[in-house]
Design brief:
Blueprint lengths: L3 H10 L4 H11 L24 H7 L14 E4 L8 E2 L24 H14 L3 E6 L9 H14 L4 E6 L8 H6 L4 E5 L5 H4 L5 E4 L2 E4 H21 L3 E8 L8 H10 L4 E6 L9 H4 L7 H12 L4 E2 L10 E2 L11 H6 L6 H29 L8 E5 L16 E8 L2 E9 L4 E2 L2 E2 L1 H10 L5 E3 L5 H9 L3 E3 L7 H18 L2 E5 L8 E5 L1
Parallel strand pairs: 1-3, 3-4, 4-5, 5-8, 8-9, 9-10, 12-17, 17-18
Antiparallel strand pairs: 1-11, 2-6, 6-7, 12-13, 13-14, 15-16, 19-20
Length: about 525
């Protein structure tokens, strides 16, 4: 959190005029890996000139559309849309829940006016907050008056904040013109199938044209409306991300077909997410025992689709009232009661100065990665390994092993360091003491990783990780993730060549993909 005085000092520290800094940022343009089109996506590593200036302007500081940006920029969702026009077997909306972290859950519903004040308060407190999204807890387009009134108020008071919404797509074709009118440049559509035979097992019913429709007919209407809405948005120049929930045994194999369908209709990014199906959430799938995919199954499906189009790998399946960087939730700091008591002064100039400093560090990170890639350029090897990283953000290895709530996973090869996902874990340190059950949970979560990068780690967990064949690495504390990972991989290859270690490929999902064994 930055105070007003801190923001002013940041503004003084910026040596170059904002126009010069922003020009350098615009020239950078990079935010992704190559997809099927040969163009870069916002799913992984950056590269200069990957995107057109128009697209880069839309994604450069949007944490959901740019994997690179999600290390640096925050988003917030406002819960102004409680009603929904579709019932999904993986969804159970809750309006007064502070304990669950999943879509459809909020602590409190807001009016558009309350939401507008909350956005100003958050943006003034978290200057790297660049995006306002409406994602529920129902469907924004099933609540069009509240949704667009909120966008109208934000556009008037904080025009520098990007606007986006997430929808199931049923009502989407009816609102494309209004979306354009309010300059909503980013729309996410949840598309779980393009075959009604499969869709009937995901959607029990829809409410359409003043009546409830069930079965295959409901699924047919959903898919037709979703794909039509996607086509209309992309034709109108709106950037579209497609979310798909991976449900093993229901639509997991079918999502490859969904991927092709949405690519052909102009989707910019495809986000395949794991089903969340704990029984305590009260969803149909949770109560009937439908399992979610393993991390390895999810990665395999994402990999199989990546040749077709750009894949998103950094989604956190946020609450409908989430606030902060992806992977963190600061919504408890901004309850309605607290917001109404705040004297909010929105200072866009200080926000811009802060974001310029963020972009300067971001460019330093990209330059450091490129320098390491140049060192790796002469290497030729088919070896690939996964590593886990404990981070609090800013693209650095800056989290203590025992404090990590999640680990970010990178795939290392002679092509560099590629972000491929994240794994949530239980906190290992509880009141200063390690809990053995939690440590076992962490090892199970990252057991396909060769190493784990941390800012600091205690002796006991270090020994336990080594015994499990996972190398704890704390020598890159507070350094940039990708630069450090590439350095580590180059040293790893040198050790393999010298015979110091033996690289072992493991195909079993329950054991490590790339283990190192003393020669």
């Amino acid at each position: 959190m930055a105070s007003h005085s801190e923001l002013n000092s940041i503004a003084v520290e910026v040596a170059k005029p904002p126009e010069a800094i922003m020009q350098e940022i615009a020239e950078h343009k990079g935010c992704g890996t190559s997809g099927g089109s040969g163009k870069a996506s916002c799913g992984s590593a950056a590269g200069q000139g990957d995107l057109s200036p128009e697209i880069w302007e839309k994604v450069k500081n949007h944490p959901c559309y740019s994997e690179e940006a999600h290390h640096h920029y925050a988003r917030m969702h406002v819960a102004v849309a409680p009603a929904c026009n579709i019932q999904c077997n993986y969804c159970n909306r809750k309006y007064d829940c502070a304990n669950e972290s999943r879509p459809g859950v909020v602590s409190e519903k807001l009016t558009p006016e309350q939401a507008a004040k909350k956005v100003l308060a958050v943006a003034s407190t978290i200057p790297q907050m660049t995006v306002l999204g409406i994602a529920g807890p129902g469907d924004p387009l099933a609540n069009p008056e509240k949704t667009f009134k909120t966008f109208e108020l934000i556009s008037q008071t904080a025009p520098d904040i990007k606007l986006c919404l997430s929808t199931n797509g049923l009502a989407l074709p009816d609102h494309v013109e209004t979306i354009k009118k309010f300059n909503v440049d980013h729309v996410t559509i949840t598309i779980n199938m393009v075959d009604p035979e499969i869709g009937q097992h995901i959607y029990p019913w829809i409410f359409w044209e003043h009546k409830r429709i069930t079965g295959i007919e409901a699924a047919r209407i959903i898919t037709e409306r979703q794909l039509l809405g996607l086509e209309m948005l992309t034709a109108a120049g709106v950037l579209c991300k497609v979310n798909s929930v991976m449900i093993p045994g229901v639509n997991d194999k079918h999502l490859v077909e969904v991927n092709r369908a949405v690519k052909s209709r102009g989707a910019f990014l495809h986000n395949i997410m794991p089903l969340i199906s704990a029984p305590e959430h009260g969803t149909v799938f949770g109560l009937n025992g439908q399992r979610g995919p393993t991390a390895q199954e999810l990665k395999a499906l994402q990999d199989s689709c990546e040749g077709e189009m750009n894949m998103m790998r950094h989604c956190r399946q946020c609450r409908a009232d989430a606030v902060g960087l992806l992977g963190e939730d600061r919504s408890a700091e901004f309850t309605t009661e607290k917001i109404m008591e705040m004297d909010v002064k929105y200072d866009s100039a200080s926000r811009q100065a802060y974001q310029i400093k963020v972009e300067q560090e971001r460019q330093e990170k990209v330059a450091a990665k490129q320098e390491e890639l140049a060192e790796l350029a002469g290497e030729h090897s088919d070896i690939k390994v996964l590593v886990a990283v404990a981070t609090k953000g800013s693209g650095r290895i800056n989290e203590h092993f025992g404090h990590a709530k999640e680990f970010q996973i990178y795939e290392l090869s002679t092509a560099g360091a590629k972000f491929v996902g994240h794994r949530r874990v239980d906190l290992y340190c509880q009141g200063g003491f390690g809990e053995e059950d939690s440590l076992d949970t962490i090892i199970r979560a990252i057991n396909d990783c060769t190493a784990v990068f941390v800012a600091k780690i205690g002796g006991c967990p270090k020994d336990t990780l080594k015994a499990a064949g996972i190398e704890p690495v704390d020598s890159y504390a507070h350094e940039f993730i990708e630069q450090s990972a590439i350095q580590y991989f180059k040293a790893y290859l040198d050790k393999v060549k010298s015979g110091e270690i033996v690289h072992v490929e493991r195909g079993d999902a329950d054991i490590r993909q790339g283990a190192f064994v003393a020669a």
